[in-house]
Amino acid sequence: NIVGLVLCPLLIAMRSVEASFLAVALVGLPVIAFWQSNVPPKAKGEGASSTTAASSPSSTLSFVSLMRDCGMAPWAIVIATFVNHFAYFLFLNWMPAYFVSEYGVSLRASAKLSVAPWICCAIVSSASGVIADRVARMPGMTLTRVRKLFQCTSFVGTALSLVALSAANQPTAAMVCFIACFGFISVGQAGFVANTGDVAPPRLVGRLFGLANTFGSLGGILSTSAAGILSEMSGFGFAWVFRSTAAILLTGAMLYARFASAEPAVGGNKN
């Protein structure tokens, strides 16, 4: 993200928009080659039978049963992914345009301004996992409490930052608010993202992650489209976009706090 925000405006200015698309495609080719040559088709030990695995209640749990019979915990992850991606893709797609339309900043300068929040995102994403592991080892803390604490902090903190952003009237103040938004949204890496591996058995983690991200993509499509419509409507603008997103984030925090769990799913469990 950081490299793209710096280089793409330069490519657009020096060449064309098509040149930036071509550059992204060319960068992806060696990544695909590296993946194919270094990532095995199956993880070590996958498919190996053992008495412990066979006797585990989750070893016979199907994906349909996981989503239908194991309470709301898997769906709390899906809901959190939808809400997270609703805000995340709003930032990703509209932050540069926001600075251009609201403050008359050039596209190149806007891209440079957008680098700082992504740096914050990278730092907080890594730090949140380390801190969450330490918090989980504290007396009286359960993994479920840790997941709820970090995810609710993520959603509530991002919502409050968006409310502040809706009132910003200077580029510097707006940038500080965006940095706070990216920092708080990244705390969720130790919340709903890690929660997927807590709830689903190893062979179903990928399916749950895929389903959650399908809903997350829908959230991203919805937020990106709604932001374009609201920002162009007379009397609304970006302030209403940010406040509406804040309301969705707060709703997501309440639902995750109510229904999330880090207990492994077992067939018939109604947690």
Model description:
Helices cover 77% and strands 0% of the residues. Helix 5 packs antiparallel against helix 9 and helix 5 packs antiparallel against helix 10. The chain is globular. The protein starts with a helix and ends in a 12-residue tail after the last helix.
User: H/E series, N to C?
Assistant: HHHHHHHHHHHH
Global structural class: mainly alpha
Biggest sheet overview: none
Low-confidence stretches: 48-55
Task: State the total count of DSSP E strands.
Answer: 0
| Total DSSP helices | 12
What is the typical, i.e. mean, pLDDT? 83
Radius of gyration, whole Å: 21 Å
In angstroms, what separates the terminal alpha carbons? 38 Å
* Fraction in beta strands: under 5%
Q: How helical, in percent, are the residues? A: over 70%
Structural shape = globular
Walk me through the topology:
Blueprint lengths: L1 H13 L2 H22 L12 H5 L7 H7 L3 H31 L3 H7 L1 H22 L6 H24 L4 H17 L4 H8 L2 H31 L4 H23 L12
Helix pairs in contact: 1-2, 1-6, 1-7, 5-6, 5-9, 5-10, 5-11, 5-12, 7-8, 7-9, 8-9, 8-12, 10-11, 11-12
Offer a few descriptive terms.
0% strand, 271 residues, 12 helices, mainly alpha
Give a short summary of the structure.
This protein is an all-alpha fold.
